[in-house]
Protein backbone atom coordinates (compact mmCIF):
# COMPACT_ATOMS: atom_id res chain seq x y z
CA UNK A 1 0.00 0.00 0.00
CA UNK A 2 1.61 3.22 -1.05
CA UNK A 3 1.90 5.94 1.51
CA UNK A 4 1.97 9.41 0.21
CA UNK A 5 5.23 11.29 0.39
CA UNK A 6 6.14 12.42 3.86
CA UNK A 7 3.34 10.56 5.39
CA UNK A 8 5.10 7.55 6.34
CA UNK A 9 6.27 6.26 9.46
CA UNK A 10 9.52 7.82 8.82
CA UNK A 11 10.90 5.35 7.69
CA UNK A 12 8.53 7.27 6.52
CA UNK A 13 5.84 7.52 5.76
CA UNK A 14 -0.69 8.02 5.79
CA UNK A 15 -5.35 8.21 4.67
CA UNK A 16 -11.60 10.09 2.37
CA UNK A 17 -11.41 6.69 1.24
CA UNK A 18 -13.88 5.51 -1.32
CA UNK A 19 -15.28 3.45 1.49
CA UNK A 20 -14.97 6.01 4.27
CA UNK A 21 -15.13 9.39 2.56
CA UNK A 22 -12.01 11.02 4.02
CA UNK A 23 -11.59 14.74 3.95
CA UNK A 24 -7.81 14.86 4.06
CA UNK A 25 -4.75 12.75 4.64
CA UNK A 26 -1.22 12.47 3.39
CA UNK A 27 -0.38 12.73 -0.22
CA UNK A 28 1.13 14.83 -2.84
CA UNK A 29 -0.05 17.70 -4.98
CA UNK A 30 -2.50 20.39 -5.80
CA UNK A 31 -4.52 22.88 -3.84
CA UNK A 32 -4.91 26.62 -3.71
CA UNK A 33 -2.55 29.06 -5.34
CA UNK A 34 -1.11 32.31 -4.11
CA UNK A 35 1.59 32.96 -1.57
CA UNK A 36 0.48 30.29 0.84
CA UNK A 37 -0.67 30.77 4.39
CA UNK A 38 2.21 32.41 6.19
CA UNK A 39 0.15 34.19 8.80
CA UNK A 40 -0.91 32.72 12.11
CA UNK A 41 -4.31 31.30 12.84
CA UNK A 42 -6.01 29.87 15.88
CA UNK A 43 -8.16 27.53 13.82
CA UNK A 44 -7.80 23.82 14.40
CA UNK A 45 -6.17 23.01 11.09
CA UNK A 46 -7.01 19.33 11.34
CA UNK A 47 -10.69 20.05 10.85
CA UNK A 48 -10.04 22.06 7.68
CA UNK A 49 -10.39 20.20 4.37
CA UNK A 50 -8.35 20.68 1.24
CA UNK A 51 -4.73 21.44 0.57
CA UNK A 52 -2.42 24.35 -0.19
CA UNK A 53 -0.05 24.28 -3.16
CA UNK A 54 0.70 26.33 -6.24
CA UNK A 55 -1.39 24.64 -8.95
CA UNK A 56 -0.33 25.62 -12.42
CA UNK A 57 -1.29 24.33 -15.89
CA UNK A 58 1.52 22.71 -17.85
CA UNK A 59 1.69 25.57 -20.35
CA UNK A 60 2.78 27.95 -17.57
CA UNK A 61 5.60 25.70 -16.40
CA UNK A 62 9.08 26.06 -17.86
CA UNK A 63 10.58 23.14 -19.77
CA UNK A 64 13.68 21.92 -18.00
CA UNK A 65 15.25 22.64 -14.66
CA UNK A 66 16.29 20.62 -11.63
CA UNK A 67 14.22 20.12 -8.50
CA UNK A 68 16.42 19.71 -5.42
CA UNK A 69 14.48 17.66 -2.89
CA UNK A 70 15.86 17.10 0.63
CA UNK A 71 15.27 13.93 2.63
CA UNK A 72 16.28 13.39 6.24
CA UNK A 73 17.84 10.19 4.98
CA UNK A 74 17.63 8.07 1.85
CA UNK A 75 16.92 4.40 2.42
CA UNK A 76 19.27 1.94 0.76
CA UNK A 77 16.30 -0.38 0.13
CA UNK A 78 14.19 1.12 -2.66
CA UNK A 79 11.57 -1.62 -2.81
CA UNK A 80 8.77 0.04 -0.89
CA UNK A 81 6.99 -3.28 -0.41
CA UNK A 82 9.99 -4.88 1.31
CA UNK A 83 9.90 -4.56 5.10
CA UNK A 84 12.99 -2.31 5.20
CA UNK A 85 11.84 -0.17 2.28
CA UNK A 86 8.61 1.20 3.71
CA UNK A 87 10.12 4.61 4.15
CA UNK A 88 9.10 8.16 3.31
CA UNK A 89 12.14 8.71 1.11
CA UNK A 90 11.32 5.58 -0.89
CA UNK A 91 7.73 6.74 -1.33
CA UNK A 92 8.91 10.12 -2.64
CA UNK A 93 11.45 8.62 -5.03
CA UNK A 94 9.57 5.64 -6.40
CA UNK A 95 6.35 7.58 -6.99
CA UNK A 96 8.28 9.38 -9.74
CA UNK A 97 9.64 6.13 -11.15
CA UNK A 98 6.82 3.58 -10.93
CA UNK A 99 3.24 4.02 -12.04
CA UNK A 100 0.16 3.43 -9.89
CA UNK A 101 -3.22 2.25 -11.18
CA UNK A 102 -5.14 4.97 -9.31
CA UNK A 103 -4.40 8.46 -8.05
CA UNK A 104 -6.29 10.21 -5.26
CA UNK A 105 -7.61 13.68 -6.04
CA UNK A 106 -7.75 16.65 -3.66
CA UNK A 107 -10.79 15.16 -1.92
CA UNK A 108 -9.17 11.77 -1.53
CA UNK A 109 -11.26 10.12 -4.25
CA UNK A 110 -9.28 7.61 -6.32
CA UNK A 111 -9.33 8.06 -10.12
CA UNK A 112 -7.77 5.68 -12.59
CA UNK A 113 -4.39 6.79 -13.84
CA UNK A 114 -4.92 6.51 -17.59
CA UNK A 115 -1.19 6.30 -18.23
CA UNK A 116 -1.37 2.82 -16.70
CA UNK A 117 -5.06 1.85 -16.49
CA UNK A 118 -6.90 3.07 -19.57
CA UNK A 119 -10.25 1.87 -18.19
CA UNK A 120 -11.70 -0.53 -15.63
CA UNK A 121 -14.88 -2.30 -14.62
CA UNK A 122 -16.05 -3.67 -11.26
CA UNK A 123 -18.64 -6.34 -10.59
CA UNK A 124 -19.77 -7.26 -7.08
CA UNK A 125 -21.82 -10.42 -7.50
CA UNK A 126 -21.36 -13.28 -6.99
CA UNK A 127 -17.79 -12.14 -6.21
CA UNK A 128 -15.99 -8.85 -6.46
CA UNK A 129 -14.14 -8.85 -9.77
CA UNK A 130 -12.07 -5.90 -10.98
CA UNK A 131 -10.99 -5.85 -14.61
CA UNK A 132 -8.24 -3.42 -15.59
CA UNK A 133 -7.40 -2.50 -19.16
CA UNK A 134 -3.69 -1.63 -19.29
CA UNK A 135 -2.71 1.30 -21.48
CA UNK A 136 -1.34 -0.36 -24.63
CA UNK A 137 1.58 2.11 -24.65
CA UNK A 138 2.73 1.18 -21.14
CA UNK A 139 6.23 -0.32 -21.18
CA UNK A 140 9.12 -0.86 -18.82
CA UNK A 141 12.40 0.93 -19.31
CA UNK A 142 13.84 -1.89 -21.44
CA UNK A 143 10.81 -1.85 -23.75
CA UNK A 144 9.07 -4.87 -22.15
CA UNK A 145 5.30 -4.23 -22.14
CA UNK A 146 3.60 -3.74 -18.79
CA UNK A 147 1.26 -6.71 -18.59
CA UNK A 148 -0.97 -8.90 -16.48
CA UNK A 149 2.14 -10.80 -15.40
CA UNK A 150 3.35 -7.76 -13.42
CA UNK A 151 0.11 -7.56 -11.45
CA UNK A 152 0.06 -11.30 -10.86
CA UNK A 153 3.66 -11.42 -9.62
CA UNK A 154 3.14 -8.56 -7.17
CA UNK A 155 0.03 -10.25 -5.78
CA UNK A 156 1.89 -13.52 -5.23
CA UNK A 157 4.80 -11.73 -3.56
CA UNK A 158 2.61 -9.70 -1.20
CA UNK A 159 -0.30 -12.00 -0.36
CA UNK A 160 1.50 -13.67 2.55
CA UNK A 161 1.51 -17.21 1.18
CA UNK A 162 5.27 -17.23 0.58
CA UNK A 163 6.95 -16.10 3.77
CA UNK A 164 10.31 -15.92 2.02
CA UNK A 165 9.11 -12.50 0.91
CA UNK A 166 9.65 -10.17 3.87
CA UNK A 167 6.88 -7.70 3.12
CA UNK A 168 5.67 -4.61 4.94
CA UNK A 169 2.00 -5.46 4.45
CA UNK A 170 -0.25 -8.12 2.97
CA UNK A 171 -3.40 -6.00 3.33
CA UNK A 172 -5.73 -6.39 0.37
CA UNK A 173 -3.43 -8.76 -1.47
CA UNK A 174 -4.38 -11.57 0.91
CA UNK A 175 -8.02 -11.12 -0.12
CA UNK A 176 -7.34 -11.70 -3.81
CA UNK A 177 -8.37 -15.16 -4.97
CA UNK A 178 -6.79 -15.01 -8.41
CA UNK A 179 -5.28 -12.73 -11.03
CA UNK A 180 -5.48 -13.89 -14.62
CA UNK A 181 -5.20 -12.40 -18.09
CA UNK A 182 -8.47 -11.56 -19.83
CA UNK A 183 -8.78 -11.40 -23.58
CA UNK A 184 -5.06 -10.54 -23.77
CA UNK A 185 -2.13 -9.99 -21.45
CA UNK A 186 -3.08 -6.29 -21.42
CA UNK A 187 -6.30 -7.12 -19.56
CA UNK A 188 -6.02 -7.95 -15.86
CA UNK A 189 -8.87 -9.84 -14.20
CA UNK A 190 -8.66 -9.63 -10.40
CA UNK A 191 -11.05 -11.86 -8.45
CA UNK A 192 -11.41 -11.31 -4.71
CA UNK A 193 -12.23 -14.07 -2.24
CA UNK A 194 -14.01 -11.49 -0.07
CA UNK A 195 -15.15 -7.95 -0.87
CA UNK A 196 -12.37 -5.41 -0.44
CA UNK A 197 -13.38 -1.78 -0.20
CA UNK A 198 -9.97 -0.16 -0.74
CA UNK A 199 -8.91 -2.12 -3.80
CA UNK A 200 -7.85 1.04 -5.68
CA UNK A 201 -4.85 1.34 -3.37
CA UNK A 202 -3.34 -1.98 -4.43
CA UNK A 203 -0.31 -2.16 -6.72
CA UNK A 204 0.70 1.35 -5.65
CA UNK A 205 3.38 1.47 -6.77
CA UNK A 206 3.63 -1.57 -8.98
CA UNK A 207 7.01 -3.23 -9.32
CA UNK A 208 7.96 -5.43 -12.30
CA UNK A 209 7.39 -9.17 -12.43
CA UNK A 210 11.13 -9.60 -12.90
CA UNK A 211 11.82 -8.52 -9.32
CA UNK A 212 8.60 -9.73 -7.69
CA UNK A 213 9.00 -13.36 -8.80
CA UNK A 214 12.05 -14.19 -6.68
CA UNK A 215 12.42 -13.45 -2.93
CA UNK A 216 16.14 -12.78 -3.35
CA UNK A 217 15.65 -10.35 -6.23
CA UNK A 218 12.79 -8.75 -4.26
CA UNK A 219 15.45 -7.58 -1.80
CA UNK A 220 18.64 -7.38 -3.84
CA UNK A 221 17.54 -5.73 -7.08
CA UNK A 222 16.43 -2.52 -5.36
CA UNK A 223 19.28 -2.36 -2.88
CA UNK A 224 20.91 0.96 -3.73
CA UNK A 225 19.51 0.50 -7.23
CA UNK A 226 16.47 1.11 -9.41
CA UNK A 227 16.79 -1.39 -12.24
CA UNK A 228 13.78 -0.26 -14.26
CA UNK A 229 11.01 2.31 -14.58
CA UNK A 230 7.58 2.65 -16.13
CA UNK A 231 7.08 6.23 -14.94
CA UNK A 232 8.14 9.68 -16.12
CA UNK A 233 11.56 9.45 -14.44
CA UNK A 234 14.25 6.80 -14.16
CA UNK A 235 17.43 6.45 -12.12
CA UNK A 236 20.27 8.66 -13.27
CA UNK A 237 22.81 8.03 -10.52
CA UNK A 238 23.34 7.32 -6.83
CA UNK A 239 26.26 9.12 -5.19
CA UNK A 240 27.04 7.49 -1.87
CA UNK A 241 29.64 10.12 -0.98
CA UNK A 242 27.39 13.11 -1.64
CA UNK A 243 24.38 11.16 -0.34
CA UNK A 244 22.26 11.99 -3.36
CA UNK A 245 20.01 10.06 -5.71
CA UNK A 246 19.31 11.65 -9.08
CA UNK A 247 16.35 10.89 -11.33
CA UNK A 248 16.31 11.88 -14.99
CA UNK A 249 13.66 11.77 -17.67
CA UNK A 250 12.63 8.28 -18.80
CA UNK A 251 12.99 8.22 -22.60
CA UNK A 252 10.56 5.28 -22.78
CA UNK A 253 7.79 7.25 -21.04
CA UNK A 254 4.64 7.53 -23.11
CA UNK A 255 2.71 10.12 -21.10
CA UNK A 256 3.04 13.90 -20.91
CA UNK A 257 6.77 14.70 -20.97
CA UNK A 258 8.16 15.66 -17.57
CA UNK A 259 8.68 19.39 -17.22
CA UNK A 260 11.79 18.86 -15.12
CA UNK A 261 15.08 17.54 -16.47
CA UNK A 262 16.10 16.12 -13.13
CA UNK A 263 15.03 15.56 -9.55
CA UNK A 264 17.91 15.32 -7.11
CA UNK A 265 17.01 13.74 -3.76
CA UNK A 266 19.52 14.90 -1.17
CA UNK A 267 20.13 13.36 2.25
CA UNK A 268 20.23 16.35 4.60
CA UNK A 269 19.63 16.29 8.35
CA UNK A 270 16.36 17.93 9.32
CA UNK A 271 18.12 20.67 11.28
CA UNK A 272 20.22 21.57 8.24
CA UNK A 273 17.37 21.71 5.75
CA UNK A 274 16.24 25.22 6.69
CA UNK A 275 19.76 26.54 6.13
CA UNK A 276 19.82 24.75 2.80
CA UNK A 277 16.51 26.37 1.82
CA UNK A 278 17.69 29.80 2.95
CA UNK A 279 20.91 29.39 0.94
CA UNK A 280 19.01 28.32 -2.18
CA UNK A 281 20.56 24.86 -2.06
CA UNK A 282 17.19 23.06 -2.05
CA UNK A 283 13.74 23.93 -3.35
CA UNK A 284 11.50 22.70 -0.57
CA UNK A 285 11.33 21.66 3.05
CA UNK A 286 8.63 19.58 4.63
CA UNK A 287 8.53 18.01 8.04
CA UNK A 288 8.05 21.52 9.45
CA UNK A 289 4.85 20.61 11.27
CA UNK A 290 5.63 20.64 15.03
CA UNK A 291 9.15 22.00 14.39
CA UNK A 292 8.68 25.45 15.78
CA UNK A 293 12.23 26.59 15.10
CA UNK A 294 11.94 25.59 11.43
CA UNK A 295 8.65 27.42 11.04
CA UNK A 296 9.94 30.57 12.72
CA UNK A 297 12.70 30.79 10.12
CA UNK A 298 11.03 29.67 6.90
CA UNK A 299 8.01 31.95 7.25
CA UNK A 300 10.27 34.97 6.81
CA UNK A 301 12.56 33.71 4.04
CA UNK A 302 12.46 35.67 0.77
CA UNK A 303 11.24 33.83 -2.34
CA UNK A 304 9.80 31.08 -0.15
CA UNK A 305 6.13 30.24 0.27
CA UNK A 306 4.85 28.46 3.37
CA UNK A 307 1.94 26.13 2.67
CA UNK A 308 -0.36 24.80 5.40
CA UNK A 309 -2.96 22.05 5.23
CA UNK A 310 -4.65 19.46 7.39
CA UNK A 311 -2.03 16.89 8.20
CA UNK A 312 -2.33 13.35 6.91
CA UNK A 313 -0.04 11.93 9.58
CA UNK A 314 -0.18 11.59 13.33
CA UNK A 315 2.49 11.55 15.99
CA UNK A 316 2.49 9.01 18.77
CA UNK A 317 4.45 7.41 21.56
CA UNK A 318 5.17 3.77 20.77
CA UNK A 319 5.89 1.42 23.67
CA UNK A 320 8.04 -1.65 23.04
CA UNK A 321 6.02 -4.46 24.56
CA UNK A 322 8.43 -7.25 23.61
CA UNK A 323 8.90 -10.02 26.14
CA UNK A 324 11.32 -9.12 28.91
CA UNK A 325 10.67 -5.40 28.73
CA UNK A 326 8.96 -3.61 31.65
CA UNK A 327 6.46 -2.45 29.03
CA UNK A 328 5.44 -6.02 28.24
CA UNK A 329 3.06 -5.55 31.18
CA UNK A 330 -0.11 -3.79 30.05
CA UNK A 331 -0.51 -2.27 33.53
CA UNK A 332 2.80 -0.42 33.09
CA UNK A 333 1.78 0.71 29.63
CA UNK A 334 -1.54 1.95 31.00
CA UNK A 335 0.27 3.82 33.77
CA UNK A 336 2.49 5.62 31.27
CA UNK A 337 -0.45 6.46 29.03
CA UNK A 338 -2.46 8.13 31.77
CA UNK A 339 0.66 9.54 33.39
CA UNK A 340 1.29 11.90 30.49
CA UNK A 341 -0.66 15.05 29.64
CA UNK A 342 -1.26 14.88 25.91
CA UNK A 343 -2.90 18.29 25.67
CA UNK A 344 0.17 19.88 27.21
CA UNK A 345 2.32 18.08 24.63
CA UNK A 346 0.07 19.15 21.75
CA UNK A 347 0.03 22.78 22.90
CA UNK A 348 3.80 22.90 23.34
CA UNK A 349 4.65 21.33 19.99
CA UNK A 350 1.89 22.62 17.71
CA UNK A 351 0.65 25.88 19.21
CA UNK A 352 3.66 28.01 18.18
CA UNK A 353 3.01 27.06 14.53
CA UNK A 354 0.06 29.43 14.34
CA UNK A 355 -2.48 26.60 14.39
CA UNK A 356 -4.16 24.59 17.09
CA UNK A 357 -4.94 20.92 17.52
CA UNK A 358 -6.37 18.57 20.11
CA UNK A 359 -5.19 15.15 21.25
CA UNK A 360 -6.02 12.48 18.71
CA UNK A 361 -8.22 9.78 20.21
CA UNK A 362 -8.40 7.26 17.39
CA UNK A 363 -5.67 5.11 15.83
CA UNK A 364 -7.48 4.42 12.55
CA UNK A 365 -9.44 7.52 11.55
CA UNK A 366 -8.29 11.10 11.80
CA UNK A 367 -10.35 13.95 13.19
CA UNK A 368 -11.31 15.24 9.76
CA UNK A 369 -12.33 11.85 8.44
CA UNK A 370 -15.85 10.56 8.32
CA UNK A 371 -16.54 8.07 11.10
CA UNK A 372 -14.00 9.48 13.55
CA UNK A 373 -14.93 8.99 17.20
CA UNK A 374 -13.15 9.01 20.53
CA UNK A 375 -12.63 5.43 21.72
CA UNK A 376 -9.97 6.20 24.32
CA UNK A 377 -12.13 5.82 27.42
CA UNK A 378 -10.22 6.23 30.68
CA UNK A 379 -6.90 6.00 28.86
CA UNK A 380 -7.59 9.28 27.11
CA UNK A 381 -7.41 11.33 30.30
CA UNK A 382 -4.40 12.10 32.46
CA UNK A 383 -4.71 10.60 35.94
CA UNK A 384 -1.43 10.61 37.85
CA UNK A 385 -2.96 9.09 41.01
CA UNK A 386 -4.38 6.16 39.07
CA UNK A 387 -1.07 5.76 37.20
CA UNK A 388 0.76 5.33 40.52
CA UNK A 389 -1.80 2.72 41.64
CA UNK A 390 -1.27 0.75 38.42
CA UNK A 391 2.50 0.76 38.89
CA UNK A 392 2.08 -0.45 42.46
CA UNK A 393 -0.23 -3.17 41.20
CA UNK A 394 2.37 -4.20 38.62
CA UNK A 395 4.97 -4.60 41.37
CA UNK A 396 6.92 -1.40 40.66
CA UNK A 397 6.95 0.14 44.11
CA UNK A 398 8.66 3.16 45.62
CA UNK A 399 10.56 3.53 48.88
CA UNK A 400 11.53 7.18 48.43
CA UNK A 401 8.19 8.92 48.35
CA UNK A 402 7.47 8.16 44.69
CA UNK A 403 10.62 9.63 43.16
CA UNK A 404 11.79 6.27 41.80
CA UNK A 405 10.35 2.76 41.50
CA UNK A 406 11.93 -0.68 41.57
CA UNK A 407 10.87 -4.28 41.08
CA UNK A 408 13.01 -7.19 42.23
CA UNK A 409 15.81 -4.71 42.82
CA UNK A 410 15.68 -3.31 39.29
CA UNK A 411 14.88 0.37 38.78
CA UNK A 412 12.11 1.43 36.42
CA UNK A 413 14.25 3.35 33.96
CA UNK A 414 13.06 3.43 30.35
CA UNK A 415 15.07 4.35 27.25
CA UNK A 416 13.33 6.98 25.13
CA UNK A 417 15.20 6.76 21.82
CA UNK A 418 14.99 9.93 19.72
CA UNK A 419 16.19 11.16 16.35
CA UNK A 420 19.14 13.36 17.29
CA UNK A 421 18.51 15.65 14.31
CA UNK A 422 14.95 16.50 15.37
CA UNK A 423 14.44 19.32 17.83
CA UNK A 424 10.78 18.36 18.24
CA UNK A 425 11.76 14.79 19.20
CA UNK A 426 14.03 16.21 21.88
CA UNK A 427 11.34 18.59 23.14
CA UNK A 428 8.76 15.80 23.25
CA UNK A 429 11.09 13.47 25.12
CA UNK A 430 11.90 16.13 27.69
CA UNK A 431 8.21 16.88 28.30
CA UNK A 432 7.45 13.17 28.71
CA UNK A 433 10.48 12.77 30.96
CA UNK A 434 9.20 15.52 33.27
CA UNK A 435 5.63 14.30 33.27
CA UNK A 436 6.50 10.68 34.05
CA UNK A 437 8.92 11.68 36.79
CA UNK A 438 5.82 12.67 38.75
CA UNK A 439 4.74 9.02 38.91
CA UNK A 440 8.22 7.67 39.66
CA UNK A 441 9.18 6.57 36.15
CA UNK A 442 12.69 7.52 35.11
CA UNK A 443 13.29 8.27 31.45
CA UNK A 444 16.74 8.19 29.87
CA UNK A 445 16.75 10.10 26.58
CA UNK A 446 18.92 8.38 23.97
CA UNK A 447 19.68 10.51 20.87
CA UNK A 448 20.69 8.49 17.79
CA UNK A 449 21.65 9.54 14.25
CA UNK A 450 18.70 10.33 12.01
CA UNK A 451 19.80 7.82 9.36
CA UNK A 452 19.86 5.07 12.01
CA UNK A 453 16.70 5.93 13.90
CA UNK A 454 14.43 3.44 12.18
CA UNK A 455 16.80 0.92 10.67
CA UNK A 456 18.96 0.32 13.76
CA UNK A 457 16.55 1.13 16.58
CA UNK A 458 12.80 1.28 15.89
CA UNK A 459 12.66 -1.49 13.27
CA UNK A 460 14.68 -3.92 15.38
CA UNK A 461 13.08 -3.04 18.73
CA UNK A 462 16.08 -1.39 20.38
CA UNK A 463 14.04 1.06 22.46
CA UNK A 464 11.49 1.26 25.27
CA UNK A 465 9.71 4.38 24.02
CA UNK A 466 9.98 5.99 20.60
CA UNK A 467 8.10 8.60 18.66
CA UNK A 468 6.77 7.12 15.45
CA UNK A 469 4.91 9.08 12.82
CA UNK A 470 2.12 7.11 11.20
CA UNK A 471 -0.04 8.17 8.33
CA UNK A 472 -1.19 7.23 4.92
CA UNK A 473 -3.07 8.21 1.86
CA UNK A 474 -6.64 7.82 0.68
CA UNK A 475 -6.96 4.36 2.22
CA UNK A 476 -7.04 4.60 6.04
CA UNK A 477 -8.00 1.01 6.83
CA UNK A 478 -5.32 -0.50 4.61
CA UNK A 479 -2.81 1.94 6.05
CA UNK A 480 -3.62 1.23 9.70
CA UNK A 481 -3.88 -2.55 9.49
CA UNK A 482 -0.14 -3.33 9.20
CA UNK A 483 0.60 -0.82 11.95
CA UNK A 484 -1.36 -2.99 14.41
CA UNK A 485 -1.10 -6.44 12.82
CA UNK A 486 -0.39 -9.36 15.12
CA UNK A 487 3.32 -10.23 14.59
CA UNK A 488 3.94 -13.66 13.06
CA UNK A 489 6.97 -15.93 13.07
CA UNK A 490 8.14 -17.34 9.76
CA UNK A 491 9.43 -20.84 9.13
CA UNK A 492 12.99 -19.55 9.56
CA UNK A 493 12.16 -18.11 12.97
CA UNK A 494 12.12 -14.51 11.79
CA UNK A 495 9.49 -12.33 13.44
CA UNK A 496 7.52 -10.35 10.87
CA UNK A 497 6.09 -7.31 12.64
CA UNK A 498 5.01 -5.53 9.42
CA UNK A 499 4.81 -1.99 10.89
CA UNK A 500 3.78 -2.98 14.42
CA UNK A 501 6.77 -1.54 16.24
CA UNK A 502 5.19 -2.16 19.65
CA UNK A 503 5.51 -5.87 18.84
CA UNK A 504 2.23 -6.84 20.49
CA UNK A 505 -0.93 -7.69 18.61
CA UNK A 506 -4.24 -9.43 18.95
CA UNK A 507 -5.87 -11.76 16.40
CA UNK A 508 -9.19 -10.11 17.25
CA UNK A 509 -7.85 -6.80 15.95
CA UNK A 510 -6.76 -8.51 12.72
CA UNK A 511 -10.28 -9.89 12.36
CA UNK A 512 -11.89 -6.49 12.85
CA UNK A 513 -9.67 -4.94 10.19
CA UNK A 514 -10.54 -7.78 7.87
CA UNK A 515 -14.24 -7.16 8.43
CA UNK A 516 -13.83 -3.42 7.90
CA UNK A 517 -11.88 -3.90 4.70
CA UNK A 518 -14.36 -6.48 3.45
CA UNK A 519 -17.36 -4.25 3.93
CA UNK A 520 -18.50 -2.26 0.93
CA UNK A 521 -21.08 -0.59 3.16
CA UNK A 522 -19.56 2.64 4.49
CA UNK A 523 -21.45 2.67 7.80
CA UNK A 524 -20.47 -0.92 8.58
CA UNK A 525 -16.86 -0.27 7.64
CA UNK A 526 -16.75 2.71 9.99
CA UNK A 527 -18.25 0.61 12.79
CA UNK A 528 -15.63 -2.12 12.39
CA UNK A 529 -12.87 0.51 12.19
CA UNK A 530 -13.96 1.97 15.51
CA UNK A 531 -14.24 -1.45 17.11
CA UNK A 532 -10.68 -2.13 15.99
CA UNK A 533 -9.59 1.19 17.44
CA UNK A 534 -11.23 0.44 20.80
CA UNK A 535 -9.33 -2.86 20.90
CA UNK A 536 -6.08 -1.09 20.02
CA UNK A 537 -6.63 1.29 22.93
CA UNK A 538 -6.98 -1.71 25.27
CA UNK A 539 -3.74 -3.16 23.91
CA UNK A 540 -2.11 0.23 24.62
CA UNK A 541 1.19 0.00 22.78
CA UNK A 542 0.66 3.18 20.76
CA UNK A 543 -0.49 6.43 22.35
CA UNK A 544 -1.77 8.94 19.77
CA UNK A 545 -0.57 12.46 20.46
CA UNK A 546 -1.84 14.76 17.72
CA UNK A 547 -2.67 14.94 14.06
CA UNK A 548 0.31 16.77 12.65
CA UNK A 549 -0.25 19.97 10.69
CA UNK A 550 1.17 19.69 7.21
CA UNK A 551 3.47 22.68 6.78
CA UNK A 552 5.71 22.76 3.74
CA UNK A 553 8.00 25.56 2.57
CA UNK A 554 8.84 25.76 -1.12
CA UNK A 555 10.57 27.90 -3.66
CA UNK A 556 7.79 30.35 -4.51
CA UNK A 557 8.06 29.45 -8.20
CA UNK A 558 7.72 25.71 -7.67
CA UNK A 559 4.48 24.59 -9.30
CA UNK A 560 2.12 21.82 -8.25
CA UNK A 561 3.70 21.06 -4.91
CA UNK A 562 3.28 22.33 -1.37
CA UNK A 563 1.06 21.02 1.42
CA UNK A 564 -0.85 18.50 -0.69
CA UNK A 565 -3.23 16.95 1.82
CA UNK A 566 -4.33 13.62 0.42
CA UNK A 567 -3.83 14.26 -3.27
CA UNK A 568 -1.19 12.26 -5.13
CA UNK A 569 1.61 14.07 -6.88
CA UNK A 570 1.77 13.99 -10.66
CA UNK A 571 5.53 14.14 -11.06
CA UNK A 572 5.53 15.02 -14.75
CA UNK A 573 3.69 18.23 -13.82
CA UNK A 574 6.26 19.38 -11.28
CA UNK A 575 8.40 22.29 -12.36
CA UNK A 576 9.00 26.00 -12.07
CA UNK A 577 6.76 28.76 -13.32
CA UNK A 578 8.03 30.09 -16.65
CA UNK A 579 10.51 32.88 -16.26
CA UNK A 580 12.01 31.44 -13.08
Report what the structure shows:
This protein is of the alpha+beta class and 580 residues long. It is 23% helix and 20% strand. It has helices spanning 88-97, 148-158, 209-212, 215-220, 270-278, 292-298, 330-339, 342-350, 384-393, 423-437, 453-458, 476-480, 507-518, 522-539; strands at residues 66-71, 102-104, 110-112, 117-123, 129-134, 176-181, 187-192, 233-239, 244-249, 262-267, 284-285, 304-309, 313-319, 406-407, 410-411, 413-419, 442-448, 465-471, 488-489, 495-496, 542-547, 550-555, 558-559, 575-576. Strands 17-16-18-13-21 form a 5-stranded mixed beta sheet. The chain has a 4-stranded mixed beta sheet with strand order 1-10-9-8, with helices on one face. Helix 7 packs antiparallel against helix 9 (384-393) and helix 13 runs antiparallel to helix 14 (522-539). The longest helix is centred in the last third of the chain and has 18 residues, at 522-539. It is globular and about 75 Å long. The two termini are 36 Å apart.
SS-derived structural category: alpha+beta
Could you report the average pLDDT, rounded to the nearest whole number?
88
Strands, count: 24
| Beta fraction | 15-25%
Shape: globular
* Gap between N and C termini: 36 Å
Strand order in space, largest sheet: 17-16-18-13-21
Number of helices: 14
Helix content: 10-25%
Uncertain spans, ≥5 residues at pLDDT below 50? 1-42
> Biggest sheet: strands, sense, closure?
5 strands, mixed
Instruction: Kindly provide the radius of gyration, computed on alpha-carbon positions and rounded to a whole number of angstroms.
Output: 23 Å
Amino acid sequence: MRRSPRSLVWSTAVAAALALGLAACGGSSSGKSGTGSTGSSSKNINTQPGNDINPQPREKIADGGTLRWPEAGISDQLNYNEVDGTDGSVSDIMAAVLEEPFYADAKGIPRNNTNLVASYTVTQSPQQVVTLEINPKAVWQDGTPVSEADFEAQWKALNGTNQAFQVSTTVGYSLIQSIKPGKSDKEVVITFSKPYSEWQGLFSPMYPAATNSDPKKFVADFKDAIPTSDGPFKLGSIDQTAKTLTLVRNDKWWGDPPKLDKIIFMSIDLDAQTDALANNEVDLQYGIGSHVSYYARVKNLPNVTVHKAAGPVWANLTFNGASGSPLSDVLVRNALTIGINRKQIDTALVGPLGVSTDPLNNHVLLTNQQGYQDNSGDLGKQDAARAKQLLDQAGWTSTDGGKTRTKNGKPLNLRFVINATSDSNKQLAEIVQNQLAAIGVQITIVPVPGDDYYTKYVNVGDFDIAQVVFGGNAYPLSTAQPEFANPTTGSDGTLNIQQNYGRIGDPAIDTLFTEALSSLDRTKAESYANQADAAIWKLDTVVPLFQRPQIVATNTKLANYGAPGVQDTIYENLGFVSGS
